[in-house]
Write a structure and sequence with these properties.
By secondary structure, the protein is mostly beta strands. It has one domain: Beta Barrel (OB fold (Dihydrolipoamide Acetyltransferase, E2P)). Helix content is 12%, strand content 47%.
Length: 148
């Protein structure tokens, strides 16, 4: 069994491995970064350094989110650095059994970040590989922002 944090973005359930998560914090308005991809929200002071924030709703659905009291930031370890994922709601922590029959890794570059699909009662939950979530150009852009 593997532990995952389940979150919602645009009414869809997603799961990320708890192993990459450092902390879940309340949403705070970030300092905006001009001339970046639409899904890069900006910087937030975190642990003595600026934390780059990614709007998961914008990244996954190209729809801007409107933060409310349920909006959270999931601070993750990404490529040896920290990154904040802004999600509509953190739902729960849950165990899922890895099942090679559910593997859905796609060669399609646009959706290769979906590792597998979990079904829990009436919920379909997409397991995300955060390392595959961004294009090569997106990775370079985020790394450049983090390095500033």
């Amino acid at each position: 069994m593997n532990k995952f944090v389940l979150f919602k973005s645009h009414e869809q359930f997603f799961a990320v491995s708890i192993a990459i998560i450092e902390k879940i914090i309340l949403f705070q308005p970030p300092t905006l970064i001009p001339d970046t991809s639409a899904y890069i929200l900006g910087y937030l002071p975190y642990d003595g350094q600026p934390l780059a924030l990614i709007d998961m709703r914008m990244r996954l659905f190209q729809v801007a989110g409107v933060p409310d009291e349920e909006t959270k930031i999931i601070v993750i370890h990404w490529k040896g650095k920290k990154l904040g994922l802004v999600v509509d709601e953190v739902v729960r922590v849950q165990d899922f059994q890895a099942d090679s029959n559910r593997e859905t890794r796609s060669e399609d570059e646009k959706t290769n970040y979906i590792v597998e699909i979990f079904q829990e009662k009436d919920e379909i939950i997409l397991h995300l590989d955060i390392d595959k979530l961004f294009s090569e150009e997106g990775v370079e852009e985020i790394e450049a922002i983090i390095e500033k």
